[in-house]
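Hi there, hope your week has been kind to you so far. Would you mind checking whether the tokens look sensible for this chain? I owe you a coffee for this, so here goes:
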Amino acid sequence: MDDGSIYSEQDIVASLAASETDLDMDLAQYEPTPLFDVSMNGTENALVHVPSNTSDDFDSATFWPFSTAWQWTHQDLYLQGDDVIQMSLGNPDDQSLELHQTIHDQGLHHDIQIQQTSGSLMEQLPIIPTSGPPAEKSLINVVTNMVEFACRVSLTHAMERTAQWAAASRKLSEFLPASETSEDKLLHRLVEQYFDNFHPLWATFPRTVDMDAAATELHPLLFLTATSIGALFMRGAAQYGTIMHKQIREALPRQTSRTDLTEPEALDLGRALLLTQVAALYFEHDNAFSAAQHLSAALSTHVHRMRLFTLKSLDSLSQPLRKQRKTSILLEGRKMLAFGILRAETFMSVLFNKKPLISSEEINLPLPYAHELPATFSQEDPVPQEPPLPCGGLLFSDLIRIALDEEEILPPLRPFDIELALFGLQHEVWRFSHDPNVFLRLIQMPAPPSRASPSATEYVSDPLDYRRRRMRGLVDDFYRVKSALEKWKKALSHCQLSHHPELNRTIYLSSLILYELSMLRLCAPLDHIQQTAYQVLEPSASNEQVVASIFDWAATENATDAIRHANLIWQMLSLESSRATEVQANYNILALIALHHAAVVTWAVAGTGKNVDQGIVRTQNTPSTTANASAAASMIVLRRENTRELMLQFADLYPIITSSWGMQSSFFKMVVKLADHPFPSVS
């Protein structure tokens, strides 16, 4: 498309209906009543009340008591207020070292406080200056004006945007500490910070060294989104980044409902939505979980209107060479956004234990190139011959179908393809992980019977008695998923043989963590364990029946497998963190999520005392309770009395992982809490 609208008349009607009902309101502004009132001294007072008029039709043995899902309890406890302003520092490495030292000095006591540098950032960056007209000079007003300009300016007005960004930079410089950067180029400096620090973790558009080009060619809202993230890596700019993030996440859903968007504009807005969604999770902004889910839904609606997941042909014969290049860049940009959304939905799925909003069945696109295509080029640039499509142009949806077919083998895959293939299998993993009792209900077995002994399901003593279901199709589906995961693991081994590990260390680590987490989800009732972990902080909210069911599960073979996968997650992250910093893999938020799930599974099994022959290896920097020096490398067995030491092993890894993006994780706080609260006993 050259310049026309990509939306239909039906979209216009839908947009008007949405505006009449005010559907553009940011759901993140809704603040549910917290389960606990966290007082100044760190204690929690229960605020949950079970309604007295609960219907007798509900069987207490079947339904959970009135409560909030653990993810929202976590948000209510830890993701309220602008902690990012106080915790995000300009130099992530400085913070991680300081925090890491504090951890070992204080033994990870549950009241540990993050050490702050010279004063509060709130004091360093007042929202309203100490002098001058507050209405004109407040930082909030400066940010608001920038966002309003970005929402109304056209992409064709490059000169106007250049002048506006220079003026905004000068205004913004009044609130930031003195910098060597020119006042006119402050926003450019923030975008550079984004490219240097966050782009390696989450690349959504090609990097450019020409910040002037980025300022004029990126959609203004995408440009401001990059500044909001970059500000969190620049000392003294965190407050600007937080305020801009909040304003951006309110403005973006409204902009995507416009009916006059061109395809490049729609693509950039999709990128901005994706970046804002993942930034909410990475930097734990206010109500981050609610915001991420709201933005995920808005992004899904937006990209389906764009038909992002449908293959668009490149009519090379009817286009001039230069236009071919532009079209090729646009198509590759669409693919990168599509697979970026798949990645984000995978992380959301494993965090919230929900079905991904995007299925591999929808993504009828060939795999993207491994390299980044340039965002811009001059008139003199040659038009190179495009390299052959990966896997011969095999569509991603077909790749996942091959993976799920037990009679087929996967084609040779690059590291980038390997990671995407595992993302594509997560919808099938969710089918069985979100409902761990499905086999118990349907075939009265806690786990599907082994295929090696079909008599467990096929032998019937009385052919007239069919009171027991066999559910062969469901059992076959389960083993098809397990087989696909094992097939993926073999494909990874072949990939590692032909692609140097040191050059692809980040992808290999992330992929293996997701593999172990997928296996963990298939054999552990994660939602029940997590719910119990968050309720244990207030014993009156605990559900004894669920606790008893976890005790029963802990004695099964599934629990043994779950601990093995949890231990492998911990081992991989522990070993990687022991490598020299310059050769370590980059950690992404999946490592944080997997570590949290592995920690609570270990906490639960240790508390039940049902797997005392298993454990994790004590790291050298963990204080030992014995005088024997060799005990520092011994195994910490899964016993209730070892709960604290086990949790400290996990907690010690959090600041190392999050140092990549300069934050202190709220999951770290929760695991430290669990160190002092063992799994509840069965009465």
